[in-house]
Give the backbone structure.
Amino acid sequence: MDARPLLTVSEVEKAFGGIHAVDRCSLAVLPKTITGLIGPNGAGKSTLFNIIAGLYRPDGGEIRFNGTRIDGLPPYEIVDLGLTKTWQIPHELRNLTVLENVVLAAKHNSGEHLLNLFARPRQVKADEKQWRARAREILKLTQLDGLANEHARALSGGQKKLLELSRALMSDPTLVLLDEPVAGVNPALAGSLMDLIENLRRGGRTFFLIEHDMNVVMNRCDWVIVMHQGRRIAEGPPESVRANATVIESYLGG
Ligand SMILES: Nc1ncnc2c1ncn2[C@@H]1O[C@H](COP(=O)(O)OP(=O)(O)OP(=O)(O)O)[C@@H](O)[C@H]1O
Ligand SMILES: [Mg+2]
């Protein structure tokens, strides 16, 4: 394992009114790991992910991805650098098909598609073809290919999570942030989703995931970071985190 972090969060802060959602939080994610982020409700986990992905601007601190400073960059530039996030609550476009949802993810992500549409219409058509081909490939991988032409609204909760992951993969990310990838997903589908993530990790991708499901955290993560009241309070391999008294008190419930 490469010892140099892929992602470094240093002293990052974010307040909403009087609430310090993220309070001088520092952490690092090593390449080609599945790193888990756990902590009680309201600990600031989703807020931190939104900051990393460029959706919120931090009040202070610094974030580096692959050596590049990314805090303050717009989300599409961060995606272009190879960092993508999925949502805690799936953001599918209900009235589009599964395939269209995945194709659109690429367009949203490119950040300059509207400009291209006017400047280079022929290029756009060629891109469209490539995107559709790529989307179909990804849907095979996530086992949604059989549902490619269904409306996204017809999917089950678990399938919507798979659709979220499919959309994230369109940009060929190095690092994927997953906000509760298996929440509300039935155990069988959750298992295959995590198998898929392990396969993608073996292929060289890195995953940083928020999860309340201790099964996933203990069995699938290489490294676990614990957040409490906006800060990192502990980290380590899953077994050591589980045995950590502070963690037990603050999170696992005494
Ligand atoms: N957009 C916002 N405006 C105001 N307060 C917010 C906003 N987003 C989050 N908060 C507050 O910031 C704190 C951290 O919330 P966050 O959603 O990051 O927690 P979390 O660790 O993801 O929790 P959960 O496990 O329940 O998803 C909470 O007190 C929350 O109410
Ligand atoms: Mg959250």
In short: The mean pLDDT is 89.
